[in-house]
Amino acid sequence: MERIASPAIALRRYDTCEASDVHDFHQVVLGVDGAMVMAVDGIGRRIDRHAAWLIPAGARHDYAGLGDNRQLVIDLPAASLAVPQRLFDRARAVSIDPTLTSLVAQVAAAAAQLDAPAGDARQAAAHRFQWQAAARLCGALIDDAGIAAPASGLDFARIDRWLRTRLAEPLHIADLAAHCGYGMRRFHQLFVDAFGETPHRYLQRLRLDAAVVLLADGRHPLVDIAGMVGFADQSTFTHAFTKRFGVAPGRWRGERH
Questions:
Q1: In which domain, by residue range, is 105 found?
Q2: 189 in Cβ contact with 222 (< 8 Å)
Q3: Is the domain of 85 the same as that of 160?
Q4: How far apart are CA 39 and CA 29, in angstroms?
Q5: Successive 10-residue mean pLDDT values, the chain, 257 residues
Q6: Which of 117, 140, 164 marks a domain boundary?
Q7: Domain tally, the chain
Q8: How open is the CA angle 78-240-178, to the nearest 5 degrees?
């Protein structure tokens, strides 16, 4: 089984001959052009630009292209991007709305430009693009109406959206617990079950995911980005960013060119 260390995005064409795969990272397959069929754990679904498959790590999936096709594939290793653990508690075939379809097309066009082989600088740019694009796509996917609320436990998609819209604000767990209708202790337990980590740790990764997207824009000073994603000052932001990504945010952005 293949192991990867960070999110990876690739444009893929699937042959009409059926194939199978299994890997130890989660995967999202989003339609771009044409169509394919995929079955995960015996559940089959056609994928085109209006649909997506969410494939949990370890789930066998069988697939085949339907004529000429292109799919945008996101590989998500554990504890890379901030995504609720329960999002991948089972295989999900979901319909996606026009806003996400448009974003997928934009990312696919940008990914196609990075396919040509190049030197170390181009590879580093591709690595940063994949983090930024994966963060944008996963955030949009969780926000999409196709992700249904669970029958029990926390509505992880609603909570994720609540957090993303309040990144610049101090997080008070009591406020979030009250928003969800739970006491502090019970909410903390349910949150860890749904997200795979504590509220503070999850929010920290959300903030840094958002910072990666803002750094790709290039218009905001680092001190402004720090405030926009909820850090007290630029120094605290730089420390947290460097600890997670192995490079300071200024260097991350400076190496884009």
A1: 8-117
A2: no
A3: no
A4: 12
A5: 71 94 94 95 90 94 95 92 92 90 94 68 82 94 76 84 91 87 92 94 95 91 96 96 93 70
A6: 117
A7: 2
A8: 75
